UniProtKB/TrEMBL annotation:
This is SusD/RagB family nutrient-binding outer membrane lipoprotein. It comes from Puia dinghuensis. InterPro entries: SusD-like_2, TPR-like_helical_dom_sf. It holds the Pfam family SusD-like_2. It comes from the Bacteria.
Amino acid sequence: MGKQLLFICVVAIAAASCNKELNTNQTDPNGLPIAQLKGADVFAQAMVTVAQDKLGFNISDATDNYDYATQWMQYFARTTSFAPSGSQEQMETFGLTTSFSDGNWASNYHNIYDFNFVMANSTAHSVLPGASRVMRAMLFENLVDQFGNIPYSQACQPSVTITPAYDDAATIYKSLVTQIDSAITQLSASQSTADDAADIMFKGNKTLWIQFANTIKLRMALRLVPNGDQTYAGSVISSIVAQGGGFLGAGQDALINPGFVDQNLKQNPFWANYGFLPGTTTPTQNNNFFIANTFMLNFLTSTNDPRIGYFYTKNSVGGFGGNFFGSGLTSTPQLSSIGSGILQSAAMPALLFSAAQSYFMQAEAVQRGLMTGNYQTLFQKGVEESFRYLGVANPTASADAFIAGSTSQYVNIATSPSPLQTIFYQKWVAECELDGFEAYCDYRRVGYPVIATPSQAVPGTPMPKRLLYPETEYTQNTANVDAQHQQASDLWTKIFWGQ
């Protein structure tokens, strides 16, 4: 099953670090000459592709997305009715090669090029240039968080060079913060235009875009706090507070929806790949392949978490069953697949960033003394928002009762000996099957959750700390990638902000 193609813009793509350009000799499917394309014609499809990259494709294309992080963070496991091979085997054995990264790298850079195009070809005063600058910063952040040093200052400028040099990762981070500040300035000055119709996330609402930008900026600052430039991180957070735009709040998930319906190539990308075939109850290949991870099931059971039945389905005997990541145990019928809180419908919006994650990040910042506020209240809002997103009945009351009634240090922050640990564990739970990559980033910077055996296939081997540069860079940007002197063992070399 290939990528969904909604709001299609035909482009010519080469695989180097954004050696991509619009081909003026082609015509898009609606008959508009490529030379006449405007930013509004490209923005929606770029947003859909961001959602596809985050939410996954068919298992044969697993390297295009963040599926590896979803599995490594113990959300999914492979049913052992299938033997691991190809990229799945690489993930389970932590034997990632340069070919594993090709799709992930290319898709992010191609999207960056598209957002550059939108910035340069949008209606004056439109919300789209500022929104695209935010999205571009987020994509560069994702690349740094996976690879470290990357092409940045020369990237996605084919008229300048098709072999861009690599920039220092920490320097890129600081530049991205500046880019987000510029985006907020653009967004603040923007006005409602016809281009708003192309904004399939916030529908031209510049207030929400500014809150989203601030939330991304907060995430970048928090990455730096435990092991990076803490003074700089504190100044970034202070600047967010002073700016006054706020963060994503209650009910303000960043959701992408071009009009998903239960039809071929038009379903929500997660549903299309992990749910059911269009108009049927027939599970997709991924739905059969991926089951609950026993590590996560055990944690949810140990804390009496009522969300367990929303994350995973009950098995044939009315309980929950799964497998450990990388395990070769014989499969049994008592398995649980993806639950109704995650697979809500074929028409559900695609989640890019949850309000729950925003609140947990704010709770962390306050608990660390980097912002004023009540971290316990913010933490509680994070749990409440997780319950709301999953569709738990009476989510606020249910979440509050869950916290207050728990004696677990991983749930009840008021009695926890380590409030930060409690924040990170509940953030990890809230991101179950929704944002494995953010959980992976937290794991690398603070070490939570504690996972004694990340993969049963290679006991004693730690989880990788980064991805290797892709094969396409070695064939098409040889001198610049060779200058990084990367070795296979660098899978375990930390990103600059990691531990």
